[in-house]
Amino acid sequence: MYNPQLETFLKVADAGSFNKAAEEAFITPTAVIKQVNLLEDSLGVKLFVRSHRGLTLTKAGQSLYKDARYIIQYCRDSVTRAKNAMQEDVGVIRIGTSPMTPAQVLVELWPKIHALCPEIKFQLIPFENTPENAREILKNLGQNIDVVAGIFDETMLELRQCAGFELFRQPLCCAVSIHHPLAAKNSLTVQELYGEKLMLMRRDWSRYVDELRDDIWQNHPQIRIEDFDFYSVEVFNRCENGGSILMAVQAWENVHPLLKVIPVEWDHAIPYGLLHSPQPSETVRKFLSATQTVLQG
């Protein structure tokens, strides 16, 4: 589904050497060099700067490196989705699951939902948290994935062109490294965050996060705010490695084994629920109705 020379290119870029890449691929260095040369010729760009110290990526190579990883993963995911599409999907709810969108809340509700709709079945579809996946999956809910559980608000729903079914409000918490002094706490006051760096999603991503940001700016300037663009495992790693504090919700307590999610004594929360297509299938509508009945009971 894609040029296999891309995989060789990635191996060479990661190894920084034709010889090392050849060892990993169990082929000769000459074959590796030939594949990279063919790729460069077909693209009409130079991907590597070759020197006696090894290989470094050109700017074109850096750009292709980033896109190639996405292309290869997307192709692999496409095959998985195609195989899933071959299966009988009548009465099946395909739940997208990732570290930031765990399906645990649905697992807990499932026995009661199943009692109301015994004909409905769950199928878990794992995916990687990347900006590209967030855009493609949420915009196309109902095609390969029917429902994703996570935080949302009106702004996010409009941006991602999907609909949301609120289950409850999740208090905005703070995630800290288990080695951070605040990790000994089971609850935090706002004052205990003074002098700390708090990582928040950029403005205009969620009005609920923006309300927290404005509250901090106006009433707690002793807290330093650091913006970031997208929740991913890399952001959780930055929090753990850099000693910062990350805005989180309790549903993410198992995302990173070296982070602890701690409630904060402030009045800030965000909707948590099920993201689905604005025109859900009959099975999804039945599932959402059963979920509503369970919540009201």
Report what the structure shows.
- With 297 residues, the chain is of the alpha/beta class.
- Helices cover 43% and strands 22% of the residues.
- Helix 5 (104-116) links the parallel strand 3 (92-97) and strand 4.
- Helix 1 (5-15) crosses helix 4 (59-86) and helix 5 packs across helix 10.
- The relative contact order is 0.14.
Which properties best describe this structure?
12 strands, five-stranded mixed beta sheet, alpha/beta, 297 residues, single chain
Quick gist of this model?
By secondary structure, this protein is an alpha/beta fold. Helix content is about 45%, strand content about 20%. It has helices at about 5-15, 20-25, 30-45, 60-85, 105-115, 130-140, 155-160, 205-220, 235-240, 280-295; strands spanning about 50, 55, 90-95, 120-125, 145-150, 165-170, 175, 195-200, 225-230, 245-250, 260, 270-275.
Return the structural class.
alpha/beta
Number of helices: 10
Q: How many β-strand stretches?
A: 12
Tell me about the biggest sheet?
A: 5 strands, mixed
- Distance from N terminus to C terminus (CA atoms, Å) equals 49 Å
Question: Beta fraction of the residues?
Answer: 15-25%
Q: What strand order characterises the main sheet?
A: 4-3-5-12-6
> How does the overall form come out from the CA principal axes?
globular
Give me the strand/helix succession.
Answer: HHHEEHEHEHEHEEEHEHEEEH
Q: Which segments are poorly predicted (pLDDT under 50) over 5 or more consecutive residues? A: none
Q: What is the average of the pLDDT values?
A: 91
Helix content: 40-55%
Radius of gyration: 23 Å
